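ok trying this again, last paste got cut off
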Amino acid sequence: MGDPRADIPGTDRLLHEPRLAEAAGRLGRAVVLDAIRTAQDAARSGALLPGDVADAAVAALPPLASSMRPVVNATGVIVHTNLGRAPLSDAARDAVVAASGTTDVELDLGTGRRGRRGAAATAALLDAVPEAEAAHVVNNNAAALLLCALAFAVGREIVVSRGELVEIGDGFRIPDLLESAGARLREVGTTNRTSVADFADAVGDQTAFVLRVHPSNYTVTGFVGTPTVAGLAGLGVPLVVDVGSGLLRPHPLLPREPDAAGALREGADLVTASGDKLLGGPQAGLLLGRAQLVERLRRHPSARAVRVDKLTLAALEATLRGPATPTVRALEAHVDELRRRATRIVETLRGKGTDAATVPCESVVGGGGAPGVRLPSVAVALPERYAAALRTGADPVQGRVEDGHCLLDVRTVRPDQDELLSAAVLACG
């Protein structure tokens, strides 16, 4: 008898197989080659029949050329950093698709001449925050602060409270960021208490600006004190306020979360904020404030290095102009509706023999926003073993484990994902 491995189809033959040839045009030759070689190796080891190699290669192909996979967020963390923070609205996603080809990002179609990059997005931002004279967009909030330091504070001092020298994630720290730009930090006050007088005593000829940083991912309670924005606005130097979370206007569910409009009304000269997080848009850094200062930032040479691409501009404009974002809808979802959704899911699962129950729980904002705020919610409770099975399934679902149960918090699951969630649970067996 001959060696059955001799019957394994060759790579060139498989690349011309209609399904794999189509996939090479859609996903790229390298992706298809990887699937083919994996299937061939399985046949050589005896784990696969030679006649099944093509089918196995097709089955192993990813749906997209990117390895990034959609994940259902059932954690109860509305803005989950590990899951990409804010999910874009349908309007923003449509805008990204439209902008993915050739577009008028820097072209005035009326005149045929070069146009101002991002003009429509900044106009939408100014409509959302009319308290600002001008606006500029960079690639994230850290870049917004860095640009302020580069434009105004190289070789000069930034006066900041010791209680606001925060770490912003993954080991990156605000002091290191600002000092990397060539600025010197003048720390005032203490960890728990800083006064206007502390700032006033530190302001001098070397002061570039006073910086107020919102400690967005932790709270300090007890014997504490910090100046208001209004209290720092009259010190004779620019006041830069980092509100962090992307909240543009006050929200009744987040009474202690600072917002960009409020900071400007209180006298801030510049406000920096995130475009994702509570705004619910793409990752971006927003700069709003006095026109003269914003223009200096926009024209600084480093602005080119931190500028945003056309996809971000399109998504940001659509977020600002469009309907409520998934982030806002999750934040404002009423617990009664969450209970109804969870009950329907549980009834579906129980009808198929799955051990499931509805339980009350609490959600959080996440993403470095509104620390301490707890939102009443409802979860689908499953045996703990489901957590890993759901996370590694064909349609990944990320829940959380509490008290020996896998909880799927429906506040952070989009309503149109309820059936997908039920199917993913049932697929776990």
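PB: full thing came through this time. The chain has a mean pLDDT of 93.
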